[in-house]
Design goal:
2 copies of one chain form a homodimer. Helix content of chain A is 32%, strand content 19%. In chain A, helix 3 links the parallel strand 4 (79-90) and strand 5. With 307 residues, the first copy, chain A, is of the alpha/beta class. In chain A, helix 4 crosses helix 8 (271-287) and helix 6 (222-232) packs across helix 8 (271-287). Chain A has a domain at 4-150 and 187-217 and 248-269: Rossmann fold (3-Layer(aba) Sandwich). The first copy, chain A, has a 4-stranded parallel beta sheet. Chain A is built from 8 helices and 12 strands. The interface between A and B is large, with 53 and 54 residues.
């Protein structure tokens, strides 16, 4: 029988997100990716073990680097020779990009000493680890660079824009926009993104070796999403807060390569529809009393300052 | 009594390089940085555990990433609270730079999936790990970005330009230049660089927090060094070979910050003098029969290619 082992330390994941799956092939193990051990050698490993929300990774940067890189180093030992290793990388490998849209060949503009660097750099370095493992040992590597995924089953206290706005709209009604809200993002609804992942990770014949942008290439500013939610949920209003250090100004995937590698796939769900469906899910959760307070990161702007 | 523990797995280091030091405070431990354990908590840790020569790190990229990042993650556990952690980063964090000279604020141009990435990205990510540890736990971090260090006690089979040319000049006489040799480098003689390190790592009052370029800012092309050695050692000749993939075209430190943080320090040894002194040392070594063959990296140019 085929066997699927889900490993999660539940740092940011929620056990209840698997509650609807009843399948004898599925085993859940509560463990850190960097310490999980097994007597099995796996045909395929999908490494998604990392927080993805800035307040979470900025509060525990060492643990974030350890999850991504320590996780990949450990899990590589559990892969069969020539097995397949898939990894969720991120549009943050492009940093605050100087070209738009961003093709996979763009080398990025990341401050490797900055307050977002634990996430950005550990994703970059894990990409390196896996492509270099491919080059030297012949493993099959599938790396996706994901652009701002959102949707149902996000933690209400996740801390990223859509979930923040929805949690706030459903509680005190004050939507916090950092800076002037003009920063552009490409909002990918979870169903669209998961469809792309399953097509890419499980496609057997593939000549392309390299990272693949996955996302919705319609770029919408943060303030536009806030205004849309303001209209959707009566009684909400927008509050402007100081900008977050090194928040990227823009972010939009060049999907040329994606359309070649995954012909027929498109991100079909508009942000208007996606946000509305996510709102329904959040209404239930927040109604049931879920926490909506994301952790506060520790900022120290001295790091970015000159002498 | 103060105690100095040197940890080295002798992957690229040589035990004999410490043979001239007789000091009861010094202990040598043969171990991997990522697995070294101790009952002590250290006041100060200096993490230099990584190969620095492309043929060595390209042949064992996973081990290179593990040495840098696994090393730093492990060693952080052995540091006293608020202790000092120093780290040898590299000019390779700038990749193939689009600005010259390179200031510390330049975010670099590194292909995180390329054949040099195990070194470049693990240095970048270790910088992130340490500055983020500073931000969240208050440890004192000293990171230097070193530009092409050379000199006596380099392995004759190290594989970088100066040691390659000298090993070749003293054996078969054929100096291999990759590409047309026009790539510019900043050659820092080891005594100059070590002087800068000791001044930076052991300076107690310091307000600057951030990475520091250390090097010689006189940029000299590879072919000029080869021609100089051709003249120094009678009977040698230059042989041109295909370029190495993603070999940076230029490399020169902006030392503005360095001159503020380390007033009075300069790289005083010219490449002409430094190469001559290194030649003397190599003459003894090669005369004693040291191996001069660097490992061959595994190249697979598919990685850099589009669909």
């Amino acid at each position: 029988m085929e066997k699927l082992v889900v490993v999660d330390n539940l740092w940011t994941g929620l056990r209840e997100n698997l509650a609807h799956i009843q399948d004898p092939r599925l085993t859940f193990v509560e463990a850190d990716a960097e310490r999980f051990s097994s007597d099995f050698q796996f045909d395929e490993i999908i490494h998604f073990a990392s927080p993805a929300s800035p307040p979470w990774y900025m509060r525990e940067p060492v643990r974030t680097i350890s999850a991504n890189l320590g996780g990949a180093l450990n899990l590589l030992n559990l892969l069969k020779p020539k097995g397949r290793f898939s990894f969720a990388s991120t549009s943050e490998v492009y940093g605050d990009p100087l070209v738009s849209p961003q093709p996979e060949s763009y080398r990025g503009s990341v401050d490797c000493t900055g307050p977002r660097s634990s996430y950005d750099e550990s994703k970059r370095c894990t990409e390196s680890l896996l492509f270099e493992s491919h080059r030297t040992t012949g493993i099959d590597v599938r790396i996706v660079r994901l652009f701002n995924v959102y949707g149902p089953r996000t933690r209400p206290d996740d801390g990223r824009a859509v979930s923040n706005f929805l949690s706030q709209a459903l509680t005190h009604g004050e939507l916090t926009v950092y800076g002037d809200g003009s920063q552009g993002r490409s909002w990918g609804y979870v169903d669209d993104i998961v469809e792309a992942l399953s097509r890419y990770f499980w496609r057997d014949e593939l000549t392309y070796v390299g990272p693949l942008n996955i996302g919705n290439d319609r770029e919408i500013s943060v303030i536009d999403v806030a205004r849309y939610i303001e209209k959707l949920v009566p009684g909400t209003r927008i509050k402007f807060c100081p900008p977050v250090p090194q928040d990227p100004t823009n972010r939009r995937p060049d999907l040329t390569l994606c359309r070649k590698v995954l012909p027929g796939w498109e991100a079909n769900v508009s942000y208007e529809d996606g946000v509305r469906m996510t709102l329904e899910w959040f209404r239930d959760k927040v109604g049931q009393g879920a926490s909506t307070d994301a952790p506060s990161p520790v900022f120290d702007t001295r790091l970015a300052a000159p002498v």
